[in-house]
Every structure is written in structure tokens, then in C-alpha cells.
Amino acid sequence: MTWVESLHRAIDYMEDHLLEDISVSSIAEQANVSVFHFQRIFSMLTDTSVGEYLRRRRLTLAAEELNRTESRIIDIAYKYGYETPEAFSKAFRRQHGVTPSKARTHSGKLQSYNRLVIQVSLKGAEPMQYKMVEKEEFQVIGVKREFSINDEGNLKGIPKMWDEVNAKGTSAELASLNNGPIEGVLGVCVDKKDKYIDYWIAAAHEGDIPKGFSSLELPASTWAVFEVHGAMPDAMPKAWEQIFSEWFPSSGYEHAGTPEMEVYLDGDPFSPDYYSEIWIPVK
Fold first, then answer.
1. Strands 221-229 and 196-204: what pairing?
2. Which one, 96, 194, 208, 213, has least CB within 10 Å?
3. Are 282 and 224 in contact (CB under 8 A)?
4. In this predicted structure, what is the pLDDT of residue 118?
5. Angle at CA 175, nearest 5°, toward 255 and 129?
6. E strand or H helix that includes residue 185
7. pLDDT band at 62, cuts 50/70/90?
8. DSSP H/E element including 262
9. How many Å apart are CA 92 and CA 65, to the nearest integer?
10. Structure confidence at residue 123 as a pLDDT band (50, 70, 90)
11. More confident residue, 120 or 45
């Protein structure tokens, strides 16, 4: 199943169950990917989170129902998942700029978010430089933290983790211990198949595990290795978005579901000429 087909199925499922308390895991199951990968793909392709999309759609339908029916506001609030009229009114006003009672009297404008429609557009004018690499199992050493992907906690926490590791000199120590098959300091993301991921700041290392570090075995994989050119942190998110919105839909490859990594090499990461890489296991 292609990325586009997966997303179509997930959107259909969300729209068919808008009035139910559906979980992100049940939506991701329709797309046949993990929660982590689905949330990331969805936000990259739509510029919004799954939860925000559901909230916007429900409040859009609630506004339409206020305008076309005589249903009580309290009944509409319950129908669209709000436990109290006050909570509904607050959310409604945040999206539409008016209260539900004002909307019913056609006072003010309403903000409508329509059902997502996936359209194939011409992209790829900006070339992507990548290569396919076969690697046997190898060890990385480093430090790890668990992050929740609810409310995009990983997106907020990982940059802070890098700041702390850099400030303590841990990343420099890892660079000095790098003697494995991949050069550079690595950011390794391990999908735990639930609402959490493990994120490692690490280095490929052969031999005993130095004091103060943990180890992780990365399985033998076929890796798609993408070049990233430009200053951090902007260049990396841009490359990820291009990979998921352009390369995966047209490549015929799927994410293998094993850990992926960003590779940070020597140099000034804030230079417009800085070179780094994204390694994605594929099948």
C-alpha cells in the first residue's frame, strides 16, 4: 500500500468516525503504520496534527449544524465530544471567533475546515541526492531518553536534549569514541510501537561500552541515505518533509520500521554549507 493509499484510508476512517472517541492508534492501524510514523507523516503532509485535524473538523460540522437545525447548543456540544457547554463554547470561539449562540444568529464569520483531499501534484523540481547502502548489524553507544509522541512531545524534547548533551561535552566525547562503520554523531530514533519513542544521541562504536554510556544494536538493513545541505536546524526538517512528501510516494520503497538516524559530521552546523545525512531503513 502506497503512502497516498494509506493516507486516504486513514482520512476515510477519521471522517466516518468523527462522532466517536477514536484513538490515533486506531487511525494509524488503517494506514498500516505505527502511531509514531503516522503522526509524523500526517503532520509533514498536512501541516497539522491528527488531533488538531479532528478538532477542526468536528467544530466545523458543529457550526453547520447550529446554522441549519434547531438542536439545542448543549446537545450539539455532547454530540461533538464536549463534556460541558462551557468547554464547547470555549473551543468553538477559539476556532470561529464567535460564541455558538452568536453563530446561530448568523452574527460574525465562521472558520470552515473541509475534509482533506489528497491530490497528486507535480513535485521534485528540487533534486534529492541519495544512495542505497547495505550495512550489517552494528553497535552504537550513547545516551537515550524516552519521549511521548502525544502533543508532539518528542518535537519539543529532542532539541532540549541536544542542547544539554552539547553543553555537557557528551557529544564531543561520543565523536572521539566513534570507531564504527558510520562516521559522525548520530541522532537515532527507535519507534516503540506505542505512544513513545526512544531517542539516542550516539556514535557507532566497536568494542567495550565506555562508562556512562549505554549500547544499542542496529540490525542489518538496506538504508536509503539522503544528503542534507544547509544550516541546522532548518535544513533537517526540510529534508525530512521532502523525503516523505516526494521520495517515498514515488520510490516504491517502504519504511522498514527499524531505527532511523540523522548523521551529524564535523563542521559548523550553523553554516549554510554544512553537510549532514538522513539514514532510513527501507524495504
1. unpaired
2. 208
3. yes
4. 66
5. 40
6. strand 185-191
7. very high
8. strand 260-264
9. 13
10. low
11. 45
Amino acid at 243: I
Q: Are 34 and 10 in contact (CB under 8 A)?
A: no
Q: CA-to-CA distance for 227 and 229, rounded, in angstroms?
A: 7
The amino acid that residue 245 corresponds to is S
Q: Which of 145-154, 173-182, 264-273 has the lowest mean pLDDT?
A: 145-154
What residue ranges define each of the domains in the chain, with the CATH number in brackets? 3-104 (1.10.10.60), 130-282 (3.20.80.10)
Task: State residue 274 phi and psi, 5-degree precision.
Answer: -65, 140
For 23, other C-beta atoms within 10 Å of its C-beta total 12
> What's the confidence (pLDDT) of residue 61?
95
| Cβ neighbours for 158, distance < 8 A, ≥ 6 positions apart | 147, 187, 199
The three cell numbers locating residue 106: 448568523
pLDDT at res. 180: 95
For residue 251, give the C-alpha cell.
Answer: 520510490
Its sign, for the CA torsion 55, 57, 59, 65, is negative
DSSP character for 170? H
Place of cell 434547531: 70
Q: For residue 149, is pLDDT > 90?
A: no
Instruction: Name the helix (H) or strand (E) containing 227.
Output: strand 221-229
What per-residue confidence (pLDDT) applies to 75? 95
